[in-house]
Automatic annotation (TrEMBL):
Keyword Disulfide bond set for record: yes
Signal peptide (UniProt feature, chain positions): 1-25
Record keyword Disulfide bond present: yes
Family matches, as SMART domains: CLECT
Keywords recorded for this protein, A-Z: Disulfide bond, Signal
Span of domain C-type lectin: 29-135
Domain of life: Eukaryota
Pfam families: Lectin_C (PF00059)
Protein name as catalogued: Galactose-specific lectin nattectin-like protein
Organism: Lates japonicus (Japanese lates)
Native organism taxonomy: Eukaryota, Metazoa, Chordata, Craniata, Vertebrata
UniProt xrefs under PANTHER family: MANNOSE, PHOSPHOLIPASE, LECTIN RECEPTOR RELATED
């Protein structure tokens, strides 16, 4: 189905966390999107939302076992060395989108949550339970 329509999806996660994106109607309606059942295609990746809040490490373990990558709890941390941020999948930490005043390590915050208002990042305590979104490449 070729169409210029855009489907906008919005996932409410927790206290200001959200993911906004658009996919074409063609991508949304293709039976063979390349994604497993329950997953949503966006660009060249598939996403799934887990509504059950998990601590960062628990969400990360689910990611590793399934081969997916973490979003919302976005996989960034400075747990090895304070102030040295890294991605849990080993990719280079060469992009940031911190909210004003972040990261501030308020009360020993070592994990990154996405969309701390205005689509920015916040460092938060890793043991807080939060819903999360996993992603995998097609």
């Amino acid at each position: 189905m070729a169409s210029g329509c855009q489907l906008v999806f919005f996932l409410c996660l927790t206290s200001g966390l959200f993911f906004v994106g658009t996919v074409s109607a063609q991508d949304a309606n293709e039976q063979d999107s390349g994604c497993e059942p329950g997953w949503t295609r966006f660009g060249s990746r598939c996403f799934i939302f887990y509504n059950t809040p998990k601590q960062w490490i628990d969400a990360e373990l689910i990611e590793r076992v399934t081969g997916h990558r973490l979003h919302t709890w976005i996989g960034g941390h400075d747990a090895v060395r304070e102030g040295t941020w890294m991605w849990s999948d080993g990719t280079k930490f060469d992009y940031t989108r911190w909210s004003i005043g972040e990261p501030n390590n308020y009360g020993t915050e070592h994990c990154i949550e996405m969309n701390w208002g205005g689509n920015y990042w916040n460092d938060n305590k890793c043991h807080y339970g939060k819903p999360f979104v996993c992603a995998k490449d097609l």
